[in-house]
Every structure is written in structure tokens, then in C-alpha cells.
Amino acid sequence: MGSMIKRLVGILLVSLFARASGTDCGKWFSSDCLADSDKRYDKGYTNDIKEQQSFWKQYEGYWINEFFQVNNPITGKDFTQPSFFNPKMPYTGIPYKLRRAFYNESIVGSRFYSNRVYIYPPADEIFCNQTIPEGFLNVIGNGQCGVNGYSEDAGVYGTSSYEKDGRIQFLRSTGKYGANANPNSNMTAVDELTFFFASTIEATGFVNVFTGTFLNNLTQISGTQSSFVQGLPNNPILNTQVFLMTKVTREEWLAAIEQEYETANVLPEDRIDVAGIQGCFSGDACLTEEEWCTADPECSSSPYQEPDGTLKAGPIVGIVLAGVVVAVALIVAYFEHKIRQLRKQARHDFARRVAQSVTLTPGSRQLSPEALAAEFKKIDQDKNGTISNEELWEFVSSGKLGEMTRPEFDALYAVMDADGNGTVDFLEFCAYMSLCKADFNEAKDRMSIRQVRASFLAPTEASRSSFAEQTAQRYSSRVSMKVPSNIVEEDDKEEADEQNEDQDIEGKGSARQE
Q1: What would you measure as the largest C-alpha separation in the chain, in angstroms?
Q2: How far apart, in whole angstroms, are the C-alpha atoms of residue 167 and residue 476?
Q3: What's the gap between Cα 405 and its chain centre?
Q4: Neighbour-count burial of 194, counting CB atoms closer than 10 A to its CB (0-12 exposed, 13-18 middle, 19+ buried)
Q5: 52-81: per-residue pLDDT in tens?
Q6: Would the pLDDT of 365 be above 60?
Q7: Looking at residue 471, what is its pLDDT?
Q8: Which helix (H) or strand (E) holds 399?
Q9: Which of 4, 120, 331, 459 has its Cβ near the most Cβ atoms within 10 Å?
Q10: Do residues 169 and 161 make contact, with C-beta atoms less than 8 angstroms apart?
Q11: Which residues contact 309 (CB under 8 A, 6 or more apart)?
């Protein structure tokens, strides 16, 4: 029992400290979960871009983007006018006028797809007659400067972020924007009407910044765009434009692209076939599923993982106190049980010892007052009217029952000494014997059974002699067998009669025939 209690307490403490180092948060006994106040830690919070911010529901769709002239305040140059093209630095100039772009913005759950087509009208004659610097071009594609326009695709693709704040983080840009990964590019919905876009391509230093706001019942977006290359000498700004985006249907969007191709006189081989393209325009530059899942919260692991909770001080104290109370209760119950066992065993042994010593009147199973008084005096060796601890110990140790253990004796004396004065008087002795009535009667009955059994199994010499004499008398009294007269020869009849007369031992004139 004692070892079981120790194990119970040990298990309680071990489990308590184990739970303290790795328990679930949000329980009545543990700290609050970060997910309760920070959605980044909430696994149940949606990763759907449109559900995170309603701005994207209105932004998704087909747009025609028109660019307007903005003069550089330093050089006075119109950024919408053509400039020479350096194939080694594709972002430094475009040898065409910039007028329109066509955006197809789509959102599927946590993923964002932006497929765009830029269509440029031909450059004017003044530009085409300029001397072309070494290493530069005044045309892109297969057309002629001042005669043919040009088109190019562009794409940006991204996902919702682990921040779960409605922001789109871009994973890849293609075409006009360069086939690059853009870990530092994102588009943020500031509120339900306004967005902010920032893109940085570290390999080239190209930076593109957009800001826009919904107008006219969410059918148009007006804003500005600025592009520049970090590290260029003199004037790093490539262009700054004001734009106006108008939302249209898919049919209107496709028709507008075809019309713009004709207006800009773009050669068929320089046109982008947008009608049959799904996913992204740039084919091999599109993201694979594995690449999507490097950042898509739906198929990747967020850095915002809920830490293990910690136990609150109050519940810890409560659990410890409860454990102590349970342990103490078990200990108390164990010792109370042991004390009851000791007292019971002591009462039983004492009753057997008294049964050995006392003599009852014939036919009686009860201790008379006289018998109790005689037994009390027998134990009270110094005849002072009380039984001391030593006197009672000598009494219970002198029987044929085997030695009573000291704990059993201490339990016996503690109960018998009712007033606790260290001695047992006659009243206390009688009161205790009344508790031993059943044990006493049982002991007496067993002794009687053993005595009767002993008398049969081990008879005395006198009883064996008496039994032999009774047996001898029984068989000596038997009468000898008479000879039947009808089976005796006639010659011997007289002799037979004489024998019969001799066997008539009672003198009654007849003998018993057998």
C-alpha cells in the first residue's frame, strides 16, 4: 500500500511537469492560444485571397489600361514617347509609344494570376531618323521603325501570404517583366477601394510601383505608376505615368485587343494569341505545382506555428493541492485499515488466550462475573486492582497461541485502556471482554471440538481395558452348540443324551439348539 501511494504521487508529479512542458493551449488550465488574438497562428483562418479582403472580389476580371503623358520634372521628357532599346538592359527603354495594356486578373482560392498584353503603336518619324547609339536598337521584333507597332506579354503570379492580411506575395514574373522570381514583390489591398503594388527584381535592380483607387461604382481604377532601375547614373527614373483602368467583359476585352493590333499595325508574327491561352502566357516560365507550394499557405508550412501552452499558476496550485489531498486521504485510509486489522487480530488472540485460561461452569458458554473477576485477578499479578502493560503482555505471551506481535499488543492495550491512564481496571477489562464475546465463544467451541476428537482418537489405558473386558464377557456368555438327536446313531443315543444334560447349564431341563 505504501509503495502504491508513492507511485501514485510520483506519477502525479511526473505527469504534471510533463504537461507543463508540452500542453495544449486554450484549456482551462493552460495559457491562451496566440490564434485567439493573432490570425497568423489560426489554422482555421481562410487562405482565400478574396475572403481575406473584399477588394480582390472587385479587382478580379478583365481590364483595359490606358496610359497618359507625364513629363519628367528634371528633363521635361515625356515618358510615353519612344526611347532606344538596349537588349542587355531591357528595362531602360522601349522604341515605341506606350498607350494601352490589357490585364486579365484572376484569383483562384489562395493563388493569383495576372496575364497582361502590352500593345505599342509605331514610333514617329522624328525618333526613327535619329542616330542609333552603339549597342541599342530602334525596333523590337520583325517590324520597321515608324511603320509597325509591337506587342509583348507580361505576367505576375503569386499567392496569399502567411500574414493572412489580404496581401498577395508574388512568386514569379514573366515576359515583359522578366522571367524572375520576385520574393520582394507584393500587392496589398490597403482597404476596400485602394491597392498598393511594389515590385523589385534584385537581379536587374528594376523597381515598379503602382497605387490605384476604385472610381465610378467600382468600374474604373485611377492611379500612378513609376519605374526605375536602382544604381543607374544621372536620372534613374525610367517612366512615370498616370493610368486609368476600365473593367470590361471577356468578349469586350478580346475585341479591344484585336482592334488595337490593327490600329498599331502589329505584324501577325509579333502578336500574342490571348484567346487560347490558359494559366500564363509564357509557357515554360509558368510555375510548377512544386514551385507554387514553396509559398502557397494551402500546401506549405507556415512559420507561424502555435507554441505549446503553459500551465496557469492557479490550476497548477489546484492540481498539486488536489494530488496532495488524494495522497493524504489514501495514506490515512491505509493506516486506519491497518489499525483496524491490528485491533481485530489482537482481540481475537486475547479471546483465545482467555479461553485457554478460564474455567466455565458445565453447560455454560458465557463468562460469569465470578469467572471474569477470577481471570482479572489471575492477570493482575501484583494484586493492586489494575492490570499494567507489563502484566497484560506477560499474560498474552504465556499461552500456547504463539507470540503476539508488539504492534498487535499495543493496539490491544490502547483499546482496553479506555481512559488512557496507562492501566486497565476491572470495568475496562469487562467492557473489552464484552467486545470479545464472539471471538471467545468461537475459541471455546474449537477447544471443545478438539477435546472430543482427542478422546476418540487417543483413548486412555483404563478405557481400553474396560472395552476388552466387555468384549470377553459378551463372547464367553454364548452357549455352546447342541448336537441334534436325529442325526446321531441309535447306538450313541445314550451318550448324546448325557452330553445334552451336561450342556444344560441353567438346570432347566432343556438346552438351546443351534
Answers
A1: 194
A2: 132
A3: 51
A4: middle
A5: 999 999 999 999 999 886 665 555 666 667
A6: no
A7: 46
A8: none
A9: 120
A10: yes
A11: 23, 24, 25, 26, 27, 30, 31, 33
pLDDT band, very low/low/confident/very high, at 137 (cuts 50, 70, 90): very high
Calculate the CA 190 to chain-centre distance. 41
Closest by CA to 198, choosing from 214, 187, 189, 212, is 187
Q: How far apart are CA 170 and CA 179, in angstroms?
A: 12
The predicted pLDDT at position 467 comes to 44
pLDDT, tens digit (0-9, with 9 covering 90-100), for 459-512 = 555 444 554 455 445 444 443 434 444 434 444 454 445 444 444 444 444 444
- Where on the phi/psi map is residue 178: left (φ > 0), alpha (ψ -120 to 50), or beta? left
Q: Is pLDDT of 117 > 90?
A: yes
Nearest Cα to 226, choosing from 94, 62, 59, 67? Answer: 67
To 10 degrees, the CA torsion angle through 294, 295, 301, 306? 160
Cα dihedral: 430, 431, 434, 435 (round 10): -130
For residue 226, list its beta bridge partners: 209, 240
Tell me the three cell numbers of residue 193.
477601394
Three cell numbers written together for 214: 476604385
Which residues, listed in sequence order, are joined to residue 224 by a DSSP beta bridge? 211, 242
Coil vs helix vs strand at 49:
helix
User: What was the pLDDT predicted at 370?
Assistant: 75
First CA to last CA across the chain, in angstroms? 81
Distance of CA 443 to the CA centre of its chain: 59
Mean pLDDT on 410-419: 82
Euclidean distance between CA atoms 130 and 81, whole angstroms: 14
CA-nearest of 109, 106, 160 to 279 is 106
Q: Shortest CA distance to 63 belongs to which of 232, 257, 310?
A: 257
CB 229 within 8 A of CB 207: yes
Hey, what's the cell of 249? 467583359
Q: Which residues, in sequence order, are CB contacts of 320 under 8 Å at separation 6+?
A: 16
Write down the pTM of the prediction: 0.60
Residue with cell 481471570: 375
According to the 3-state scheme, what is the secondary structure of 366-423?
CCCHHHHHHHHHHHCCCCCCCECHHHHHHHHHCCCCCCCCHHHHHHHHHHHCCCCCCC
| Beta-ladder partners of 101 | 65, 118
| pLDDT for residue 91 | 61
Find the angle CA(105)-CA(108)-CA(111) to the nearest 5 degrees: 85
Q: Which residues of 346-370 are buried (b: 16+ CB within 10 A; e: fewer)?
A: bbbbbbbbbbeebeeeeeeeebeee
Partners of 188 in the β-ladder: 167, 196
Which residue is listed with cell 481590364?
Answer: 63
Q: What share of the chain is helix, strand, coil (3-state, %, to 5)?
A: 40, 20, 40
